[in-house]
Amino acid sequence: MAMRSWLFVPGDSETKLGKVASYGADICIADLEDAVAPPAKPMARMMVRNWLDDGLRAPPGGSARWVRINPLDTPLWREDLAAIMPGRPQGIMVPKASGPEQLQALAAELQQAEQRNGVTPGSTRILPLVSETPAAALSIPTYANAQLPRLVGLTWGAEDLSAALGASRKRDALGNWTDTFRHVRAQVLLTAHARGILAIDTLHAEFRDLEGLTRIATESYADGFAGMLAIHPSQVEVINAAFTPGDAEIAEARAIVHAFSANPGAGALQLEGRMIDQPHLEQARRLLERLS
User: Fold this and answer.
1) Do 151 and 141 form a contact (C-beta atoms < 8 A)?
2) pLDDT digits over 179-197, tens only?
């Protein structure tokens, strides 16, 4: 399934949980972390469990239902899992992930929770936010080779890291990420591709700025990201469009694959007046695989 748009919804809003599946996001993420105040977390867990149960009764083909649990360095995440795993979420987003070892501990807990609740072993995927402290940001390359079969991708966020650094800005006067945040973003992109998993770009906080989002999402797709986080339903359509290959791009990929299929063993070929080689073939195959 497509994994272009990842839309957050507060876990303590029954109204918003009831509407989120209608917005067209590929992934809907019920948030039990930042969107829910501590006193409201027990009730939010019940609401999210009901929302997951509704998803089990829904026709196939809709948005995937994920949950962002509380950080793994708090006791809250185990309470989150106990409440939500009977509802069979398709994935868990992990905030403030400190490194692969922490996710391995989560994976062990998920294995037990799947067994208790009759969930297919290994089916609950993991997407960590890997940049929210300086130490976590420095650990990003270690995900490339870690034993984490549930890992579907990597994503990042700038707000918590900015606070940890005491940074008064994240973007420069032209709207581009400043050096630290550009470095973190590049590490997420490189590490995800090195491992062969999804690189998911961070959210655009100015949710009314759809023109800016269009530019940012288009550039993100061109850079090699597979999708993007969203915090408002209005962002979903823009993100889906930006991360969907166009007809010309698809036609070119098919032409590249066909050219090499017609010339087995060729290392490089000419196609419409330009040279293509094995990296072009690999890129074309990856694009076409995303359509299947």
Assistant:
1) no
2) 999 999 999 999 999 999 9
